[in-house]
Amino acid sequence: METVLVVDDDRVISHLVTSLLREKGHKVLTAFDAVQGLMQAKRTPPVDAIVLDINMPGGSGEDTLKKIKMSTRTSNIPVIILSGSIDGQGQERVRSLGAEAVLSKPLVPEELFEALTKAL
Fold first, then answer.
1. Residue range of the domain that includes 26
2. Which of 5, 2, 9 is nearest to 34 (CA)?
């Protein structure tokens, strides 16, 4: 059973993603801002994947992604970006920083499951 960290300040979206992932048999941890997300990402044992929002308090998802990918402790954790406000340039930017996939809100569950399956 893989552990997935969901980092999103929108508690409705966080709850939705958490419920969907649990239905698929994943263990889920949550964080509601960038600082909490980074702390959870660095926990031991490490999480298997991260679903990360772009716009959050405490720092942007893009900055959080950079920090995750720069740390030897977390650099190998696949990160899936979930955002309602990322344009084409932003998508290219986060992919170049190491995001495995970029998904748009409103969330399409099948897209999340497909991205997560590929990432794991």
1. 3-107
2. 9
